[in-house]
């Protein structure tokens, strides 16, 4: 562990408003498998797995408490934004996590990627949960204290409403590291009044949609597939 480490962690813990009882857990949440392998340490992967679930829960709980009238569809759309790699990476950047991540071998001098930052951000919350004695309430409140304002503002500004092809692709990349396909099923009508039917699909999820342009048909089909995927978890 670098000499400056303990000092640096003070900053991080101050910003989080949380002091770890077990510093080993904090270090583990920032230990990439490339470093873990070299040093014979545990990497952050299982903490990330745990943190991912916790953050989903914190975000849904926060959204429901702030926007009790929102429909399930809207909540799903908001949630997918606030737990996206892109968004969690932003939160990780705010905590300057890239300065703490422990990388080994060739990765050491690489730029810290979006997914790496998002993953360690998730792992950090898994670590806090275990460290505080598995109190979901405590950690949920800490998360809300840090991010409620930011999330509520983003909802009010409509920041989460992005185009559906992008949203869908993010979701499928995150889940399966795959991209959806798009296929024109039919084109009807005269030139000045075309109607396109497009199919979108990934894995067992399929939907078709019609539109006056290929693009608008794709957007609608992407939205339908995304809704199928998001509602399949419940
Ligand atoms: Mn992750």
Helix-strand blueprint:
Layout lengths: L4 H12 L6 H7 L3 H7 L5 H22 L5 H11 L2 H10 L19 H18 L4 H21 L7 H13 L4 E8 L6 E8 L2 E7 L2 H18 L3
Antiparallel strand pairs: 1-2, 2-3
Bound molecules: manganese (II) ion.
Descriptive report:
The protein has 234 residues and is mostly helical. The chain has 10 helices and 3 strands. The longest helix has 22 residues, at 45-66. 30% of the residues are buried. It has 2 domains: 5-156, Orthogonal Bundle (Ribonuclease iii, N-terminal Endonuclease Domain, Chain A); 164-231, 2-Layer Sandwich (Double Stranded RNA Binding Domain). Helix 9 crosses helix 10. A 3-stranded antiparallel sheet has the order 1-2-3, covered by helices on one side. It is elongated. The chain starts with a helix and ends with a helix. The mean pLDDT is 91. Helices cover 59% and strands 10% of the residues. The structure holds manganese (II) ion. Manganese (II) ion is lined by residues 48, 52, 118-119, 122.
State the share of residues found in helices, binned by percent.
Answer: 55-70%
- What is the approximate shape? elongated
Low-confidence stretches: none
Sheet with most strands: 3 strands, antiparallel
Gap between N and C termini: 43 Å
Based on the structure given, which CATH architecture of the largest domain is correct?
Orthogonal Bundle
Task: Tell me the Rg in angstroms.
Answer: 21 Å
State mean pLDDT (0 to 100 scale): 91
Name of the CATH class of the largest domain: Mainly Alpha
Please tally the β strands and state the result.
3
Q: How many structural domains?
A: 2
What structural class do the secondary elements suggest? mainly alpha
Order of helices and strands: HHHHHHHHHEEEH
- Report the CATH topology name of the largest domain: Ribonuclease iii, N-terminal Endonuclease Domain, Chain A
Adjacency order of strands in the biggest sheet = 1-2-3
Beta-strand proportion: 5-15%
